[in-house]
Amino acid sequence: MASKFGTPLLDLPLPRERHQTLGLVLIRRMTAHGPHDARAAMLAMDIAGAHFRKLLVLCRAYMVDLGTTSRRTIRLAPCCATGMTRDEGLMVQLFENGGLDVLAALTDDAPCVAARETALAYGAELRKLALRKGWKR
């Protein structure tokens, strides 16, 4: 759903966990500015160090799989938004071990589960990064 000005409604607060917020920001940057966005790459390099390429590749693959699979428009907020759209909440839930029900809600029951597998790999990489960094939340 969007407001009367065409901007997506921010129905949900940002994720509590730092790695989930990082994953969401990378998705927003790459969606708004293309999969080779320099700021997204710099953010990944600053946070992930030598492991930044895997994080970026998994994020790109997740976006491509979800975009080609979904039967509907997925609404994302601008990069600096202080909340999440319903679709972003589903995306975060999907890469945090979301099931097929979450994928169905996000893609309008598209038959392909490749997006779920990519989402799980992306979420696993974000969790590994959080463990390496010692993030508590």
Description:
With 137 residues, the protein is mostly helical. Helices cover 61% and strands 3% of the residues. It contains six helices and two strands, in the order E-H-H-H-E-H-H-H. It has helices at 18-33, 38-48, 52-69, 86-95, 100-107, 114-133, and strands spanning 12-13, 83-84. Strands 1-2 form a two-stranded antiparallel sheet. Helix 3 packs antiparallel against helix 6.
Task: Give a topology summary.
Elements: E1 12-13, H1 18-33, H2 38-48, H3 52-69, E2 83-84, H4 86-95, H5 100-107, H6 114-133
Antiparallel strand pairs: 1-2
Helix pairs in contact: 1-2, 1-3, 1-6, 2-3, 3-6, 4-5, 4-6
- End-to-end Cα distance: 30 Å
Shape: globular
Helix and strand composition category: mainly alpha
Strand line-up in the sheet with most strands: 1-2
Query: Which range does the strand content fall in?
Result: under 5%
pLDDT < 50 stretches: none
Q: DSSP helix count? A: 6
Question: Which sheet architecture does the biggest sheet show?
Answer: 2 strands, antiparallel
Q: Encode the helix/strand succession as letters.
A: EHHHEHHH
User: In total, how many domains does the architecture comprise?
Assistant: 1
Number of strands: 2
Radius of gyration: 14 Å
Helix content: 55-70%
* Average of the residue pLDDT scores: 90
